[in-house]
Amino acid sequence: MGLTTSACLAIDAGNTKTDVAVVDIGGTVLGRARGGGFRPPAVGVEAAVDGLGTTVAKALAAAGAGAAAGVAARPAVPGAGAGTGTAPDSGPAPGTGAGPPVPLVAHVSACLANADLPSEERAVTAALTARGWGRTTYVANDTFAILRAGLPDDGSVQHGIAVVCGAGVNCAGQDGEGGTHRFPALGRLSGDFGGGGGLAEEALWFAARAEDGRGEDTRLAREVPWHYGLTSVYALIEALHLGDLPRARMHEITPVLFQVAAGGDPVARALVERQADELVSMVRVGLTRLGLLERATPVFLGGSVAAARHPLLHDHFTRQLAVHAPKAVPEVVTAPPVLGSALLGLDAAGAPQASRARLRAHYA
Questions:
Q1: Rounded distance, CA 15 to CA 42, Å?
Q2: From 324's CA, which of 8, 266, 284, 315 has a CA 20 to 30 Å away?
Q3: What pTM was computed for the model?
């Protein structure tokens, strides 16, 4: 059975996890699923979208879409429906190889990490559209999901800034009149600092230099290796270099950094405060480029690091934001970002405000 008469397929894909929800026009969540991260730079667009397809198939199956079994397959007709955001309305089920797929939902709303450049958005839009999951497809960077989740549903405020600090950092905003501003958000390559991954690398760098005498003493040199059951930073470096400890586990250093910073360690505190300063800088630039610096503007904080409200990070951020953007109003968004993707889908469908309220209640 298809769901095309009413359903939206909402996708929020970050570096480490993907959430998918199937939502009807009334704001009821019909099915949902969670999968791994979305990393086209590492595996290529098609393979990354294949990974999305596995999670999408689970969500559609949970929603009762009988044809969902073929969703994870690549389209039999290369490029079918690609490029315009519109897929054909008839044909056999996805993955059968007999022609263009039948859309299973009315609209696909996908907010994705690593869709940082317009060219990347176009490539992912083409790949998603070719799958034929929905009649129309919209792709945006995942920062816009945080922005939409934070904005009110009645349209009373349509301008705002979202700043995300999770595995990486990003910032995007809109002026409410069609103008947007964003950063490339490609890590150090594009001038970014921090995020969970960046902070972990910095903490290990300072720990290594403290242990070997090149840098200032810091408790990080003792607490970071202890976390892994090791007795020295040297042993930790060796384990990471030789592959005895997977590099993926480096993200565990970030909570240690915050614990050490909370205990007053000067090196750790300086790192956390620098992260807050960098986020403020992104927000200030976004507000300035959008002409919002002198206008009361909501600033929504999202991502696993920012939304955790670590006192040192959050308090330093709010203090510095008040200095550099006095009219900005910070607010932490704790709802899952897939809510923002789904709200964008309901917006596209022209759903009534009561539908959005029902959807928010589901994720409250």
A1: 11
A2: 266
A3: 0.87
